[in-house]
Amino acid sequence: MAYFEGSLKEFNYFLGPIARNVIQQITKGAKKGKCCEKCHRSDVELQAAHVHGEERVQIIESLLNQYYKTSDDSYRVDLKEFVDKFKQYHLPIENHFLFLCEPCHKKYDCEETDVSLLKVQNYISKLSPIEKEKLLKELNLKEI
User: 6 pairs with which residues across the strands?
Assistant: First the structure.
């Protein structure tokens, strides 16, 4: 068996491309005969876009922390087992991906996500009432 030992950053550097290839492999068949889920063009090559909040790097970090963590930023990973868990995580495929043409995929990746909204709400919840009131006034809002 092959093992990886190192940090999250090192794992993503060395094994991130392999995880990307796994995604291409498991979504290849699901794209056949479909059109872009945003613009509905059928004459284009489709790409698999992770649903917002479930990007590849986040999934990798979650799996590593859940199954392979040995210390604060150190992991020992059975690579075959990891690939199997990574594939399983993405099933059913329809719950984790949108099939988009390249221009729509780029636009989708730039859209505001619920995750970003949660970060804003979390930030605002930590403000004092005076700071919150000042921010709302600057944004010309009554409430968030």
Answer: 75
* 44-103 confidence digits (pLDDT tens): 999 999 998 888 999 999 999 999 999 988 999 999 999 999 999 999 998 899 999 999
| Inter-residue contact 96 to 90 (CB < 8 Å) | yes
The rounded distance, in Å, linking the Cα atoms of 70 and 4 is 12
Residue ranges per structural domain of the chain: 3-109, 112-144
Residue position matching structure tokens 């284009």: 44
Rounded CA separation 27/142 (Å): 44
Rg of the chain over Cα atoms, rounded to whole angstroms, equals 19
Q: Is 101 exposed, middle or buried (0-12, 13-18, 19+ CB in 10 A)?
A: buried
Residues 103-127 pLDDT 10s:
999 888 877 555 555 566 666 777 7
